[in-house]
């Protein structure tokens, strides 16, 4: 009615007013159309679009369910709209790779800001990890595990520009931590390692004031199940932390009973809510570490949180008052937010019939290589296709272990070494054949009768759920960092590449490898069809004489160079040794460094015992610790 009256009024006016009314009405119509277009349009203005989003086609499959989240709870103020020309750093979908002709946004576009974090937030929470370029494969694994679970509200902090650029070109949401850190593996406990810990605290202290919940993770852990519904079960918690607890205090999926937790709180997985108590804790923790560079970040966290511990918040939740008496703390159950011990050694979640949410590769003895190998054994690591199809192919074998070595008698240091030494001898033969045939050795599963730790213990930890015997991680016996290190060939012979025992069962193993397989059945020479000169197979099986020498191996298996997998029925008595003494010496020089120590016996210092790759060549060899300081060295 108002529009109609206006038109009648215009018609009765003078021409000059007719013109004015016409211009005003047209202006209102155009403005209204623009406003409604802006509200209902699914495409942002070009000046505000993401640097990556603009490069993705509408048909990109990654866009289906992984668009950026802009959840905005009432208590969080809306961020101001970027000014025209502002270039955002991220794509609309994780793994949305920018085209190669796309120019990377400037470094300042990747700075940590509330606006930047908000673009990854969903339901007011963001999941964050960080690292340098040396851990890129861990970071990609971390991201892939989450996205495979349908979780996309994640962010990665880059401690060097090499990692930042690499993640950008892979479509991973990344921000610049401004650390200017080295791109190499810094090693646990090094000064640079401690610097990384301080960066974590600074990061937490920076993000919490933005008003979002923060699930902070180390890069050497992986997610097995979406943790966000579990964390939401404890809305009153200011901080939920994982721990190094190895003795269960609960047998279901509830929080640990805080009064019974003796292990350190582990800051590799912990969840923060942006409460005043949590922000106060983060600030004081940061100030503590910046004031003393000798304090390890985790020790500092434990010290400051335990300044006051108790009483319980209530009778049911499992939360406890900590830190300043106001902070509500919960300890995540180690059975399902697993350490390297509760997952890889105890398999606690299996025994309790629970579904694990995460595994953190702690309690291991092989450095970064040990962490990587454990995740590979569990088929949880994201490797490129070429990892599953090495040049030269695979060599595998079926280990042979008498029942008595596994189950008879007491589980003692002596029975443990008898079992492990029996396996070491077979692995030594397999390493020699792999070196001879230039193949990658698939390490067998390794059985142990007692646990390995850093301190004296009676075999297994009292109260833990470690079963005896158990499949132990390879780093319990072998020095993985040495096995995978490039050593000078003139001194140590050719490299011998290895893979985890589970690789041939990994779903990522391509069909061309699975279909190219040769089974080798060891036989006694002279028996029917057991001829050293025979290189013909029957039903995909080759009969091959025991006690064969270097020349026989080279002659027979030269016909099978293109076969991807050669699997021996056994390694016992398979190989008599190298003909070339120089090659034999270099091989021995290499593999005797491959084994490590077991630790530790009670009531003796030092308490560790060295494994010996050539134990069987030393009459009277015994599993005892070094008797003097002069004896305390590897057996080479």
Keywords:
14% strand; 636 residues; alpha/beta; globular
What does this structure look like?
With 636 residues, this protein is of the alpha/beta class. The protein contains 19 helices and 22 strands. Strands 3-2-1-4-7-6-10-9-8 form a nine-stranded mixed β-sheet, with helices on both faces. The protein has a six-stranded parallel β-sheet with strand order 17-14-13-20-18-19, with helices on one face. Helix 6 runs antiparallel to helix 8 (276-291). It is globular.
Strand content: 5-15%
Unreliable spans are 1-86
Mean pLDDT score, rounded? Answer: 86
Number of strands: 22
Q: What form results from the Cα inertia axes?
A: globular
CA distance, first residue to last residue: 100 Å
Q: Helix amount, in percent? A: 25-40%
**Cα-atom Rg, whole angstroms?**
31 Å
Number of helices: 19
Note the main sheet. Answer: 9 strands, mixed
Strand order of the largest sheet: 3-2-1-4-7-6-10-9-8
Structural class, from helix and strand content?
A: alpha/beta
């Amino acid at each position: 009615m108002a529009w109609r009256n206006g038109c009648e009024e215009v018609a009765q006016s003078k021409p000059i007013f007719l013109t004015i009314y016409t211009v005003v009405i047209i202006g209102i119509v155009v403005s209204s159309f623009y406003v409604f277009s802006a509200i209902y349009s699914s495409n942002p203005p070009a000046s505000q679009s993401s640097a990556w989003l603009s490069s993705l086609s509408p048909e990109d499959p990654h866009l289906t369910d992984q668009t950026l989240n802009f959840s905005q709870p009432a208590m969080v103020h809306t961020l101001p709209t970027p000014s025209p020309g502002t270039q955002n750093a991220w794509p609309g979908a994780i793994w949305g790779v920018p085209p190669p002709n796309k120019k990377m946004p400037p470094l300042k576009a990747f700075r940590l800001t509330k606006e930047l974090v908000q673009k990854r937030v969903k339901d007011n929470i963001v999941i964050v990890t960080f690292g340098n370029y040396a851990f890129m494969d861990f970071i990609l694994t971390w991201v892939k595990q989450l996205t495979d679970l349908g979780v996309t509200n994640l962010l990665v902090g880059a401690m060097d520009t090499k990692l930042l650029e690499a993640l950008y070109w892979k479509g991973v949401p990344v921000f610049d931590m401004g650390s200017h850190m080295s791109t190499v593996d810094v090693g646990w406990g090094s000064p640079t390692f401690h610097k990384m810990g301080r960066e974590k605290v600074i990061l937490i202290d920076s993000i919490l004031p933005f008003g979002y919940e923060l699930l902070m993770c180390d890069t050497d852990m992986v997610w097995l199940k979406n943790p966000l519904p579990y964390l939401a079960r404890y809305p009153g918690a200011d901080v939920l932390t994982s721990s190094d607890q190895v003795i269960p205090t609960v047998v279901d999926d509830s929080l640990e009973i805080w009064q019974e937790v003796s292990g350190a709180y582990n800051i590799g997985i912990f969840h923060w809510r942006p409460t005043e108590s949590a922000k106060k804790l983060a600030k004081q923790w940061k100030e503590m570490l910046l004031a003393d560079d000798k304090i390890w970040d985790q020790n500092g966290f434990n010290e400051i949180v335990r300044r006051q511990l108790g009483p319980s918040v209530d009778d049911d939740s499992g939360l406890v008052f900590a830190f300043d008496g106001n902070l509500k703390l919960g300890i995540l159950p180690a059975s399902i937010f697993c350490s390297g011990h509760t997952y890889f050694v105890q398999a606690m979640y299996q025994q309790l019939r629970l579904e694990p949410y995460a595994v953190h590769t702690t309690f291991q003895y092989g450095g970064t290589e040990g962490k990587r190998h454990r995740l590979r054994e569990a088929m949880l690591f994201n490797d490129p296709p070429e990892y599953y199809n090495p040049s030269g192919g695979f060599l595998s074998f079926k280990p042979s272990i008498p029942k008595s070595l596994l189950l008879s008698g007491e589980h003692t240091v002596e029975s443990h070494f008898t079992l492990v030494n029996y396996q070491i001898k077979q692995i030594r033969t397999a390493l020699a054949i792999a070196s001879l045939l230039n193949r990658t050795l698939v390490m067998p599963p390794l059985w142990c009768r007692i646990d390995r730790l850093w301190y004296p213990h009676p075999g297994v930890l009292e109260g833990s759920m470690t079963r005896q015997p158990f499949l132990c991680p390879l780093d319990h016996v072998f020095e993985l960092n040495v096995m995978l290190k490039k050593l000078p060939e003139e001194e140590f012979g050719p490299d011998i590449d290895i893979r985890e025992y589970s690789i041939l069962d990994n779903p990522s193993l391509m069909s061309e490898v699975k279909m190219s397989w040769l089974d080798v059945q060891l036989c006694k020479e002279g028996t029917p069809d057991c001829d050293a000169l025979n290189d013909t197979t029957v039903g995909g099986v080759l009969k091959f004489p025991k006690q064969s020498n270097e020349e026989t191996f080279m002659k027979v298996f030269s016909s099978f160079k293109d076969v991807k997998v050669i699997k021996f029925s056994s390694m016992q008595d398979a190989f008599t040794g190298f003909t070339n003494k120089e090659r034999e010496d270099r091989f021995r020089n290499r593999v005797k460094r491959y084994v490590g120590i077991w630790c530790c016996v009670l009531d003796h210092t030092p308490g560790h015992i060295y494994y010996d790759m050539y134990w069987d060549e030393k009459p009277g060899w015994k599993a005892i610790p070094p008797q003097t300081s002069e004896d305390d060295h590897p057996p080479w």
